[in-house]
Every structure is written in structure tokens, then in C-alpha cells.
Write a structure and sequence with these properties.
2 helices, globular, about 150 residues, single chain, 12 strands, alpha/beta
């Protein structure tokens, strides 16, 4: 199924009035991602996980570390324009979002590989979004919790 058809199907299933698309600016990317945030799927992971491993990992899925007894590393797939995923730390365990073999852009770093919430007392309530622009992943810390960039 072509990528455009997947987005069209997802938009119909989610009952959206507006198709998923990406703006040219970072602010536009974040705004577009938030437009479908309310009615998105949630997926709790307790061990390292490659995003996109299951058909239920649709664009806009919220991944959490709910139930994890140790660190959880979320590895992103190759960046395809229009993809975005949310990540929420709900237990006091390190949560890392890594761009895998791709390069990410994040806080003062245009060649990062990951963003991690590992500081004790800063793990619960951590919240980030990963947005693909077709070339790289943009990793944005949406919480006030401190994040480590690698």
C-alpha cells in the first residue's frame, strides 16, 4: 500500500476532518502533530521497542513506559515525511527515544542520535514528540523535565 493510501485510510479511520500533512516549519510540524493528539492510540512498552513493529503503531501513537521495571529504548524507523509519534514517561525509569540509523535534530544539536529522560525525579511526566521531515527525525521535549541529548 502506498504511503499516501495509508495516510488516507488512517485519516478516515480516525474520523479526522483534515488530512495528516507536514508544514515546512518546525512550529507547523508540532501544531500539525497536535491536531490529532486527542483521538490517538496508546501503546505501553516495558522493554526496548522498535516503533513500527506492529500494524497498531499508526502515525500519532502515544508510546509510554507504563509497567516498565527498567529502562526502555524506543527506536524510530527510517524517517518518512508525515510520521510523528509521542512518548510519555509514566514510571520512574529511563526512557530513551533514538533515531536508529537516522540522524535527529534536537535541543542545540543538528546531528543527535537520541533524547533520553534519565534524571531521577525527572522521569515521570516526561513527554516528547518525534516528527519526521523526510530526511531526519525532529525530537522535541514537550515537558519541563530535563532531557539528555546524545
Amino acid at each position: 500500500m502506498a504511503n499516501g493510501n495509508i495516510l488516507a485510510l488512517w485519516n478516515r479511520l480516525a474520523g479526522r476532518q483534515q488530512t495528516a500533512e507536514i508544514d515546512a516549519t518546525t512550529n507547523g510540524l508540532i501544531v500539525r502533530a497536535f491536531q490529532s493528539f486527542i483521538a490517538t492510540a496508546t501503546s505501553a512498552r516495558t522493554a526496548n521497542y522498535t516503533v513500527g513493529s506492529f500494524a497498531t503503531d499508526v502515525i500519532g501513537t502515544i508510546f509510554t513506559n507504563r509497567g516498565a521495571a527498567g529502562p526502555v529504548i524506543f527506536t524510530l524507523p527510517a524517517p518518512t515525511a508525515g510520521q510523528y509519534y509521542f512518548f510519555a514517561g509514566v514510571v520512574a525509569q529511563t526512557m530513551t527515544i533514538t533515531a536508529g540509523s537516522a540522524i535527529a535534530v534536537t535541543i542545540n544539536n543538528a546531528a543527535a542520535t537520541s533524547i533520553s529522560f534519565s534524571t531521577a525525579g525527572q522521569q515521570i511526566g516526561s513527554f516528547a514528540v518525534a516528527i519526521a521531515d523526510g530526511t531526519q527525525w525532529l525530537l522535541v521535549n514537550l515537558s519541563n523535565n530535563s532531557a539528555t541529548v546524545a
